[in-house]
Amino acid sequence: MSEVAGRMSIQVGAASLQKASGGFGVLLGGVPGVPPAKVVILGGGVSGTHAAEMAVGLRADVTVVDRSVDRLRELSSMFGSSLRTEYSTTATIERLVRDADLVIGAVLVAGAAAPKLVTRAMVKTMKRGAVLVDISIDQGGCFETSHPTTHAEPTFLVDGVIHYCVANMPGAVPRTSALALTNATLPYVRALADLGWQAAFRRDPGLAAGLNVHAGQITHEVVAKALGLSAHPLR
Amino acid sequence: MSEVAGRMSIQVGAASLQKASGGFGVLLGGVPGVPPAKVVILGGGVSGTHAAEMAVGLRADVTVVDRSVDRLRELSSMFGSSLRTEYSTTATIERLVRDADLVIGAVLVAGAAAPKLVTRAMVKTMKRGAVLVDISIDQGGCFETSHPTTHAEPTFLVDGVIHYCVANMPGAVPRTSALALTNATLPYVRALADLGWQAAFRRDPGLAAGLNVHAGQITHEVVAKALGLSAHPLR
Amino acid sequence: MSEVAGRMSIQVGAASLQKASGGFGVLLGGVPGVPPAKVVILGGGVSGTHAAEMAVGLRADVTVVDRSVDRLRELSSMFGSSLRTEYSTTATIERLVRDADLVIGAVLVAGAAAPKLVTRAMVKTMKRGAVLVDISIDQGGCFETSHPTTHAEPTFLVDGVIHYCVANMPGAVPRTSALALTNATLPYVRALADLGWQAAFRRDPGLAAGLNVHAGQITHEVVAKALGLSAHPLR
Amino acid sequence: MSEVAGRMSIQVGAASLQKASGGFGVLLGGVPGVPPAKVVILGGGVSGTHAAEMAVGLRADVTVVDRSVDRLRELSSMFGSSLRTEYSTTATIERLVRDADLVIGAVLVAGAAAPKLVTRAMVKTMKRGAVLVDISIDQGGCFETSHPTTHAEPTFLVDGVIHYCVANMPGAVPRTSALALTNATLPYVRALADLGWQAAFRRDPGLAAGLNVHAGQITHEVVAKALGLSAHPLR
Amino acid sequence: MSEVAGRMSIQVGAASLQKASGGFGVLLGGVPGVPPAKVVILGGGVSGTHAAEMAVGLRADVTVVDRSVDRLRELSSMFGSSLRTEYSTTATIERLVRDADLVIGAVLVAGAAAPKLVTRAMVKTMKRGAVLVDISIDQGGCFETSHPTTHAEPTFLVDGVIHYCVANMPGAVPRTSALALTNATLPYVRALADLGWQAAFRRDPGLAAGLNVHAGQITHEVVAKALGLSAHPLR
Amino acid sequence: MSEVAGRMSIQVGAASLQKASGGFGVLLGGVPGVPPAKVVILGGGVSGTHAAEMAVGLRADVTVVDRSVDRLRELSSMFGSSLRTEYSTTATIERLVRDADLVIGAVLVAGAAAPKLVTRAMVKTMKRGAVLVDISIDQGGCFETSHPTTHAEPTFLVDGVIHYCVANMPGAVPRTSALALTNATLPYVRALADLGWQAAFRRDPGLAAGLNVHAGQITHEVVAKALGLSAHPLR
Hints:
Chain A is α/β, with parallel strands linked by helices.
């Protein structure tokens, strides 16, 4: 689902930048002789990488920010001279966000709340009509000004900056999402059906690690911690 | 402006394919393991080429149709194995349109009405929720079922197929469009300002050829013909 | 050797599609204005990936099928919009094989018999003159209709479909294959020569894992299982 | 047809390099760690460019030779660092042919006999098992040692070098060729059918220039000259 | 020679940016996580395009400025998302030069003095240690602060900005330059040798147009105008 | 730092090949119609890969040599047909070095002395004016003829071959290097500051492995071995 959300984020961002949507009125890729829009992607994981692929594909001026130099190296090798990578510090994010036309928040930490990388103060420095898309909204969002929205009313304004924070982005493209989900879960479903859950868990610790609740107790440590409860991992 | 319209056509097409817009609910580029949407671009001129660049950039499955083999050769050399080219015949268009998720009408004939390449009968064979974007709408449109719409209400349905036929597409991204227009016209404006219109016309037949009306009479032959009037070219 | 076989599979497939070889008479990459041939590659491992590189290089319309979504993700990132990836299910293979001009069987399971992914019934649905190349033939083949052939008589017909099932494909390009083999084995040869086999095995479990028979007994578990015998691993 | 022949030349060249065909036994693209075969393409026109696209696609080590620096510039810009271009002189051709695994003769001069760029003496310096493919054979061939062959017996040996000189190469892929031919000729057929030949010739000098014989006399100057006759152009 | 100069300009620019040369101390392409240097190329003709190829190849952040939208379109199609194009106005140049690490002046007007696109005032706004390379220096230079230098002492400082203005740049790579020159002139030399100059001039107006002086009089109009003399074209 | 050194090696190599630096006088990428320079990169690790990216970017004719086939496979997949990979043997290095214009020594073995891959005898076979750049010089160098130099006097000649052996290459681009170093070390600095060194070492064995000396004793085994001392690893 991270892939679907990552790819969609650029196309909803492009649509939100149109004048009729209240946006700044720029075309993501510009045209020859007219500079492209500046896209900043916070997080170079699965979502961020798929967002980058689409933004580069639309010929935008793209920068990916991540706090792992190793990941930036991989991205640099994948994309060559068609995107820039910068190491994530508060100063870097401040500078990039101020000039951006479109910022994609793609910071996902497994099971935990997303860090608030873009503060309310930073949003104030942005251009009127710029666009923020928060893919991390299901985990609380990575912009301080984010709150969840729906496909019916996907955006709201803070300081003139458009926020797109739909909680279930992949729901907009159900045919693609359903297939992607089936592909990703089919091996697990087969294992559960063939072996029963206990044997399947024993054989595949990755599957076992996906268990959040068992017999009325939270089994997943990160989830428990986020809720202020104690975990009871399955043995 | 053809460049802006061509590039925009893919992003509005992608947005229209989302479920909330009434579309088929597919992501243009699919995701790994899930096939991409099929995009058919009618016309490989400036608009069509820019549409192709964006569609390929979003990882769609793209076919461009044109009736010039020379142009298909150029496109094939530009895009390599990332798009297919097919020679334009009625049979080819019927086959491609039937399976398409998104069809871009990019057939522009200078000053003349666009040919109706996609008939009402062909539209009937399409999938419910598929999308047509008619860039040629300013010249009457190249789908038989097209009629002009506005940015306020950009789409309508015929046989369950979404039609996007906004008459002034570049108006959605005014900052990009205004700059593009300035770049394109600045040399002419300079010539007119420096030399006066008569001298400027004498020096640049291309500029002179842009004159449509002079002293109450139509000077441009194609325009005159389209209106059923006779032309009075400037001498 | 998997690399050599993978790369060769496309060039023998292209040759078999020529009319003089009894094939369908299509050029793998088509030409501008004429659609390319459809190539389906079953398996995205080393062989399949090298086959895909060559097929994309010849401008064919390529789909790779694999049952690991992770592997499809890597392929998608490597090839961008120039190939499609689909998750492996029986329904997917049926649909793709029916329309294919060339199918490459590149499903290798270490030491075990290859699964029969394409059944006799699926072959019946294919076009007369289409081509199957079975790289997995050394492990029994992944088409139900395969049986081993030689470079002297490399192909046979089943239901009008050309089968290329040469058991030792790399033998056709001995200069390339000999060098590739030397490169791959030189480190092991050096270790065996320098240390003697016992010490070399202790230092490198990967080398030790390559032992199939020792002192008259089968030491490799997968091989033993495939033959219905019990394994006696070296300690 | 030049496109079909150009693309096919690489795939028949690759097949001829296989041991079973008597070739040198190398894989065109090598594999990682093993150098690729050296391909030299004489002529950077339509045929040569399509041959280059395929050879680069198969990962060979490709050099294109042409006597137009402008054309080399275009090729360099199209292919970047994946092929080399050299200006055509006898010394250059001697040096390149001596080291080549595969030489493609793609020198076509409209209506005239092809120049003999590779002499018998140069062929003597080549490796046993190297391959020459002469696309220019329909115009006499550009290797001194060429003579036309057929799809039934496509190759012969001179000094241990394999010559592939099939006179009608596109005949091997009739489905692709027939479509390509239809696409290329359809506009002329339509013009002839709609207007009659006299009017069609008047409107399109390019079409008129294709006339070789009329009322028992040769009308095409180059053809007449090649045959030692005098031309009677249509007025 | 424009090609050699264009390609060399980036490598001398990169060397001048090193600390030991007095430069700003940045690596043209940065490294993953560290932004690349900003390169601005004034002029998108032959020199500028070759400079752009090298700068993009070194992973710099490249913008090309030209006053022909058509040329910008071609560059955009060649380079995709790996460079930006901007239409040339004084305001654009001011903005870009102020932020640049390396500016390449590649504005060549056949036979005429190059326009002074970068004024002394603009140089004052640049960073200390930034670098200007003036390929147009043989025609007077396109920076107001330029004056010709030699390979022995190639650079000088104005307002802390390094100027590289070697009058005969290709002289630094004589093997490459001599071959390039031979390739470019060989066809003319052959024509002059075979036909004599009068006949060669009649057959090839392009060659004739290269004549600057004949029988003690200037024959080339642009040259004459630049020197304030009147031209006596050959008839 | 390996990245900075790898990228810089190509730009200093290109500068050293210029005539004024005493070099062979060739442009790394040649120009269309003139062959590019031959660049051989010994070692396909981080430095070597970044060197390869720059050399390919400048359109040189690049071969990377490594003794890991797996690494060559990855490089082949990253670079496609724009570079060649060869397996490292003495015979291969001899052959490649003899013909090379520029050789980059990028063989780094963690903490140990670099192996002398290019012997004095091989240097004797090279062209006068060819260039060697030894990135491994900080670890003793991988050319037998290397000795450390400084940015003030970066090169020396052996048998007419230019040696560039600056011990601290990244020092030439301090702005880029300082940022790269900060990015790479920031996570460790944070850990040390937050946790104290004992706790930080316990949590991150990679950080602990970086300790060379503690309480007057060498703790790093490879360093100790290189100095002929015994190691006292921290427990």
